[in-house]
Amino acid sequence: MEQLDSVDQSGKRMGRPSIFSQPIYIEIVMGPSHEEALELIQKGSSGSGRRPRYIMKGIDRNNLIEVRNDDLGEHAKNHCLLLAVQLTLLYVNMVKTTRANVNFLNLIRGKGESAKLYRCKLIKDMLTQMEKHGINYSPNLSHYSVEEHVPLIQKYFNEKFPGEYRLAVFGEEGHMTPLWKGADRAKKDICLYLMDGHYYGIRKLNTLFGKHMYYCLECEATYHNKNEHRQTCAAKCPRCCGMGADFPCKEIENYEINCPECFNLFRNPSCFERHIEKGICQIFKRCKECGQIYRVNNNEEHICYVRFCSLCRSRHRRDEKCYVQPIVPKHSQTYLMIVFDFECELISSSKNTDDSSSRDENYQLHHVNCVSAMLLCSTCMQNNNWKEKYTGACKTCGPGIPRMRTWTGANYKNPLREFLEWIIFGLDNKRKGRTLAISHYGGFVFYSFYYNLFSRRYDMHLLLGELIKHFGIEPNITRTGNKLYEVLIKKKNGIYPYISFRDSFNWMMLKLDQLPKALGLDIDEGGKSFFPHGWNLNKNMDILLKNLPAKKYYYPETMGKQRRKEFEEWYDMHKDGSFLLCEQIVEYCEQDVRILTHALVRLQKLFFELATESSKRDDVLVSSMTLASACLRHFCINYLKSNQIGIIPDNGYHKDTNYSAISIKFIKWLEHKTGLQIQNRQSAEGEYRITASNGSVLRLDGFIKEKNIAIEFLGCAWHGHKW
């Protein structure tokens, strides 16, 4: 209802009738879950005879151990989990010789009887061994879950091979956090990958998320160099930088040695020798004054008791306050910019009596049947060459190609798909720089039942669906509800480049036809023209009309008073002219793109001109997604001084903690009922605190000292503890 009120108020200001003046019908549509949607996408037809691409999970697929159990008979077809564990166990303990690798590949991929029998034997052996150890692992289930059945296998390992193996399961589109992992560290990790309900083994955990990388199962994070991995890691020795199940190095009683070079104190001879062999003295040193261990090759000189603060992104003492720091703009690299616009045929029975036929691809309320895109780059914008019809000798845009491209339903079966093919692959998918793809009204969908059509802010939603459904790309999305700020395709070498789709309405919150006047644009477009969206159907593309389409196809009832008046005058003047949709839609769409391009270049120039000096010029199109963030960033770059605006701590300067009013009421009621004194947030001592095994401090909602009883009332949710 709040959204309806907002639209109603906006319409009244523009002179439109209230949407509450007629009955409103609200339709609630239940979509599939994320897992069901992925299954439908991968099973569905791509419509072009091409095999649907898998959704990129962000991992190296060559690192997965194939688990084939579908050809092993009824007794083994559901035991991919057990087979994945057994195969990974074999690989981890295997001597990596050429012959051993060939034999292993024959085992996992072999279709002969011997390979199948051995895989069956691995499953049966695991079931037999778990039964001997009294582990209740049912052999006849149709599904084996991570939460219920993987812990049973870990229990078996703990009993038969104590301290030897730890299980971990990854999944969920390549997220670095495992779905499940064993509680205790072990000498070897048996890691699995769950994808589409099937378990795979992982050969090397370090290269799971890419080449030349390491992965720490304790920290659940990647790193490039062992010496640069965080010193607080539970599986790393902060003295010698050794990592694994045997680290940190154990302290030996009555043994101490000081390194004369790095001044670190060692309580283990092996740790001391190891740090010399690795050259740790050249990387870390210990300050004699404050005892802090700091990195030698850091650009900043060590100052006692001064540390880097992640909140204000500066270095200061812990007892000093945090301040918003001035921003130093980075030198922006050359980037490619695509300004585009969609036109859609509207499948709406109330506005178009003749609906589009069911043979049309992507049958839906909005079907993209025209896409126009203009190609330019940051260099062309600076040199003012972007207005030329061709790119000339520009290496970033590509030499000698037209800047404007248009795809329509008259020439292409799916203009949206053709546009995406062009922007991803047609402009060299190996390009190194960023690509910004910008449309106006591109990031929000709201349905108006009174006007019986969607808000014009839908471009990125249609684009997102095509990316997932046809290209198998699942991009990163920055959004608030249905409002999309960015749809980001991250660069993947050899597959697709870095592309950021953004909505220019977040910078310029005006209609497209209002931008020329608002920004003082000197363009010869003659103002935004009128277009009969109701006539925009693929079947009408090649129909030549002697006169303009009827007024109803322009939806005059959706216009404001001034715009309606302009339309009536324009229509009376041009109504006797001929009209061919396939020509007019190209002219209209390209006009929108040119207006938006002028506006974006002007916006960038305005922020450049507002900079107090040339070194503080910041490209708003790259660094910000909204006008608010652009203005705040401009202030922090040009006017904010150091230590001028303080950052108030989340819990206030008195370090108060969050607590719920209902928890206090519950504690008070419990005190009244039992007669016991319960320490809580409102007590003189405050909340009772306990220290967890990992060193973090936990605050209890209630604590009965006489009985040593802790009371928690949704405590972790309010205190923000991570479990």
From TrEMBL:
Residues 448-651 form the DNA-directed DNA polymerase family B mitochondria/virus domain. Keywords: DNA replication, DNA-binding, DNA-directed DNA polymerase, Nucleotidyltransferase, Transferase. It comes from the Eukaryota. Transmembrane segments: none annotated. Its EC number is 2.7.7.7. The keyword Transcription does not apply. Pfam families: DNA_pol_B_2 (PF03175). It catalyses: DNA(n) + a 2'-deoxyribonucleoside 5'-triphosphate = DNA(n+1) + diphosphate. One of its GO terms (molecular function) is DNA binding. InterPro entries: DNA-dir_DNA_pol_B_mt/vir, RNaseH-like_sf, RNaseH_sf. GO terms for biological process: DNA replication. Belongs to the DNA polymerase type-B family. PANTHER family: DNA POLYMERASE, DNA-DIRECTED DNA POLYMERASE. This is DNA-directed DNA polymerase.
